[in-house]
């Protein structure tokens, strides 16, 4: 445990890299994870499933989130929950940063 907590801006915790997706895990516990991502324009995560619900919050930029074949367009300040076991994918409409929270069941 960090004895001296620090105030930080989430969007400053990860930087864009040309042609890449960059991630930084902030919390990684058996009960869940908190991760910040930066996606360069046209980059994304291909369709996949996860065994737990995942909350996505857009910190800046614009993204397309596809859940079970339906597209959702999100921008700064928007959030969506990707349900457990539903196929989903993400793509940067514009470069964007997101905050991902996944809570695992015990």
UniProtKB/TrEMBL annotation:
Gene3D superfamilies: Jelly Rolls
The Cupin type-2 domain, residue ranges: 43-102
Entry-linked SUPFAM superfamilies: RmlC-like cupins
Matches recorded under InterPro entries: Cupin_2, RmlC-like_jellyroll, RmlC_Cupin_sf
PANTHER family assigned: SLR8022 PROTEIN
Name of the protein: Cupin type-2 domain-containing protein
Organism: Thermococcus barophilus (strain DSM 11836 / MP)
Lineage of origin: Archaea, Methanobacteriati, Methanobacteriota, Thermococci, Thermococcales
